[in-house]
UniProtKB/TrEMBL annotation:
The keyword Glycosyltransferase applies. It holds the Pfam family Glyco_transf_8. This is Glycosyl transferase family 8. The keyword Nucleus does not apply. It comes from Megasphaera cerevisiae DSM 20462. Keywords: Glycosyltransferase, Metal-binding, Transferase. GO terms for molecular function: glycosyltransferase activity; metal ion binding. Transmembrane segments: none annotated. InterPro entries: Glyco_trans_8, Glycosyltrans_8_dom-fam, Nucleotide-diphossugar_trans.
């Protein structure tokens, strides 16, 4: 075993598991399954991988790539253990920061770097014809190759499921004219998308795509941008491939849809292919969310199970403290106010205060946590 002379080496980000360039992992297979992830989401990413592997077909080849610039080699190794012994499954890690760096630096409006990764997928995966892009807040209950191989026309750029939460908000707090779409009711969710790289690269450049960040500030970041870019050229897939479960904040938005769309949502719940815990709460924060048992079925076998439980416990305590406003918090409110602004002491106190009294999510707290 190599001796570590400097203990600070342990704090450095080890990217030894990352690949330097992306080429198809299997001969004659130019399709990939892609995630954008972070070090924080690793435990939840592991749950998704477990569900994906559970529903693979031995006659298909699965080229899985996680785009990231911060997952350490230790976690990469644990994630790759999920495919150990599977000759038809490859899992790799790639840092595409260099592809988007100039766009991030020049952007008029600031978004997360991983938002840029998704916008640049056709060029990051320049050797691929198609990619299936998935979020980390899902579980998969069907072979995703069926989705990756969905038929797309010559003039279609992406394939996705309509976003019933967004469509409901068009009748609540979002103007149907906000994005200038020819068909706002065709708006799709971006956490389950098939990118037809061939068609996109044929008709767009990466500069074309990224120019949108300079012109508009999008409420839903890359999701809005992709819907605007490919408006009228989107292939709509079965809602079962991106099902929002009940007992979530998104249900209120879904309830403002037409009766037909609500009935479609209810019917899709009978046999979901991908369960997407969009909005709040997430199953790792609130296990009783709809289809939460499906998520925890995979989580219980994860090497991150104890960490998931630790976070659940910490967030639950923070939520209760933040919502009930205990007497010690009221004292803290006053104490913070009397410390001079811009002082180092005030910043230290604010950080300690936030660690104990900030609810994990305001919307989650209002709708699902216990109230006084």
């Amino acid at each position: 075993m190599r001796k570590i002379d400097n203990l600070y080496e342990l704090e450095k980000l080890d990217k030894s598991r990352y690949v330097d360039e992306l080429y198809p992992a299997f001969d004659n297979v130019k399709e990939a399954i892609v995630f954008e992830s972070s070090s924080f989401f690793v435990p939840y990413q592991d749950v998704v991988l477990k569900s994906l592997v559970e529903h693979t077909n031995e006659d298909e080849f699965y080229d899985i790539v996680i785009l990231t610039n911060e997952i350490d080699a230790y976690d990469c190794n644990l994630l790759q253990m999920e495919i150990a012994g599977r000759k038809n499954i490859s899992l790799r890690f790639f840092d595409p920061t260099s592809y988007v760096k100039k766009y991030v630096e020049k952007s008029r409006y600031k978004y997360l770097t991983i938002n840029y990764f998704r916008m640049a997928l056709p060029w990051i995966f320049k050797k691929y014809d198609r990619v299936l892009n998935l979020g980390a807040d899902i579980v998969i209950e069907k072979d995703v190759m069926e989705l990756l191989h969905c038929p797309m026309k010559h003039n279609e750029y992406i394939a996705g499921a309509i976003d019933l939460g967004y469509l409901g908000r068009l009748k609540m707090d979002i103007s149907p004219d906000e994005l200038g779409l020819c068909n706002p009711d065709g708006y799709v969710n971006a956490d389950v998308l098939v990118f037809n790289n061939v068609n996109i690269r044929r008709d767009f450049t990466m500069d074309n795509i990224m120019a949108l960040w300079q012109k508009y500030y999008f409420r839903c970041a890359e999701q809005d941008a992709l819907n605007m870019l490919f408006d009228g050229h989107i292939h709509h897939i079965d809602l079962r491939w991106n099902l929002f479960p009940p007992r979530m904040a998104s249900v209120e938005h879904i309830s403002h849809n037409t009766i037909n769309k609500i009935e479609l949502w209810k019917k899709s719940m009978q046999d979901p292919y991908i369960i997407h815990y969009a909005a709040y709460p997430k199953p790792w924060d609130y296990p009783l969310v709809g289809f939460g048992d499906c998520w925890w079925k995979y989580a219980r076998t994860s090497p991150y199970y104890e960490e998931i439980l630790r976070r659940l416990t910490v967030n639950s305590v923070r939520g209760e403290l933040g919502i009930n406003r205990l007497w010690i918090q009221k004292i803290g409110d006053r104490f913070v106010k009397i410390v001079p602004r811009s002082s180092r002491a005030r910043e230290v106190i604010k950080r300690i205060y936030a660690a104990f009294f900030t609810p994990p999510n305001k919307e989650w707290g209002e709708k699902f946590a216990k109230k006084r």
